[in-house]
Each structure stands twice: as structure tokens, then as C-alpha cells.
Amino acid sequence: MVRVDNHPVPATLALNRAELRRYLERVGDRWRLDGAYLGGSALTGGAVEPSLVGREIEYTVVLVSDAFDEIPWLERTYVAASLWDALEMGAPAELHCYTCAEFERKRDTMPPVRDAVWHGLDLLSFL
User: If we measure between CA atoms, which residue out of 35, 12, 14, 19 comes closest to residue 116?
Assistant: First the structure.
């Protein structure tokens, strides 16, 4: 069991904390992170936002950094996704990379982002 906001969350895959730390280090070598969240069905054991039901088991990673400001969204997402090690983590990840202002808009309107923030792990605090 993983504890999120003092509630136990069953995990279908063992959470590889060491690899998560290494992932954040790889990302942090490129951009200073203001926020990092982990969610998705691989973390919650399938208990995800209703609109996400039926998707393959995967993680959702939300990275927030004002350093993304000058980088096109597709480029920052591609680079961050290329740093994710699905073999080590046991599942692929859907990446979302936003500036702080973009994150404020997307946090409550995009189901995968909302799920990661509300029901997932705040990686900067967790690790």
C-alpha cells in the first residue's frame, strides 16, 4: 500500500522510489522543477478518474517548471518522456509538462492532470 494524503492507495506495481528519484534528477539536470506529480492506474491500482477507465495501466507524470516557458510544449514533453525508464518503473508514463501558469489552467480541467494532483503523489515531497 502507498499512502496518499493519509489514505492507503493500493498499487498494482511496486513503486520504484530509487528510479523515481533518478528520473527527477535527470529532469532536474535540464530544468528546475517547481512541481512534480505522479498518478495513473499503475499507482492507484485502477482507481482513476472515470473518464480514464479502460486505458492501459500506466503512470501519469505532471512536471511543472517556469523553465519550460521558452520551450515548445511538444519538445519539452518529448524530452521529459525520453528520460522515463518504463522498464525500471514497470509501466510507461503519460507526460504533461507545464509552466506554472499553464499548470494553474490545466490542473482542474484535464482529467489525467487532475487525477495525478488530487489522487497521486507529490513527488517533490514524497521523495
Answer: 35
CB distance 61 to 24 below 8 Å: no
What CATH number should be reported for the domain holding residue 14?
3.30.300.90
| Cβ(115)–Cβ(52) below 8 Å | yes
Report the side by side order of strands in the sheet with 35-39.
93-98, 59-64, 35-39, 121-122
What's the pTM?
A: 0.82
Q: Per-residue confidence at 127, pLDDT binned at 50, 70, 90? A: confident
Number of domains composing the chain: 1
| 96 three-state secondary structure | strand
